[in-house]
Amino acid sequence: MTLSEEELEALERSVNEIDALSAIYGESSESGETDQDELDSCFSILSKQEMDVARSILRGEKAEVPTLEVEISTGVQMDDGTSEKIILKCCIPPGYPDHPVIPTASSKGMSWSIRDELSSQLAEIAESMVGSESIMGLVAELNEMCPPVLQRMQLNNESSSKSQETTTTSHGDGSYSRLWIWVHHITNNDRRKSIMAEAQGLKLGGVLKHGYPGIILIEGRSNACDDFATWVKGSKSLPGGFGRNLGHHVRGQVQLEAEEEQQLCFASDFQEMEDMAVLGQLCKEKGLEDEFREFAMRHKG
């Protein structure tokens, strides 16, 4: 594959920027460890094999320009003087910087909705910086954006804790639900990871059945189930997101007027599987065979 001068120049600029970032922030070792403090800035190349391919192309070898991925972790200063570790991942597509990087922001304990919000804002900034090297600029923007967002997240967590202590929801005190979501397929690895993380973060039990079809069975406090459904519907802008069609895929919601978690089938255990037969057997063992036939197999007995 012969590349044009413009394509070679773009690739060279990408590689040079990555080398500069490594020199500025300090690249982590193969084990991911550095001699730096946990909150110090640190840089990692997540696509080392692809980086080797990129360098070989610049040496004259013929190959397809790869997508590169890097990660920068940095300590963000909060208004109260404390620091929080923030991670910025950037996917660098072929043609960058004439095409924008795809940024993803995260932090320990950060909900997926907050991650999506930050990442969406960064993506808009990346679009505005097309034509120039943008990753260091995105790090600076993230440092500016994070303190108020993290503070809001802390306030929300405190408010949520108080709300749980005096539970007053539209479902009533101690109400639990089981929600079945059916989609054509769930095969994207990032989507699967995000579904697992969101369910576990909301302390929901259940099953993610990936592959064809895709089935999500969640069980727990009704307000947490509602939050999960809202999150899934709100992920339409993400790669592999369900989008507005979620409403057409919710096969059933079962209200469990239970006041004790011991009446739940899955408690806080959330597991993943691919085999529909295994899911069917599990539901049979837990007394959910009728629901499985109606909501997963899409017909009643």
TrEMBL record:
InterPro entries: Phi-like, Prp3_C, RWD_dom, RWDD2A-B_C, UBQ-conjugating_enzyme/RWD
Organism: Cylindrotheca closterium
RWD domain boundaries: 16-149
Alphabetical list of PANTHER family matching this protein: RWD DOMAIN CONTAINING PROTEIN 2, RWD DOMAIN-CONTAINING PROTEIN 2B-RELATED
Pfam family, one: Prp3_C
Protein name per Swiss-Prot or TrEMBL: RWD domain-containing protein
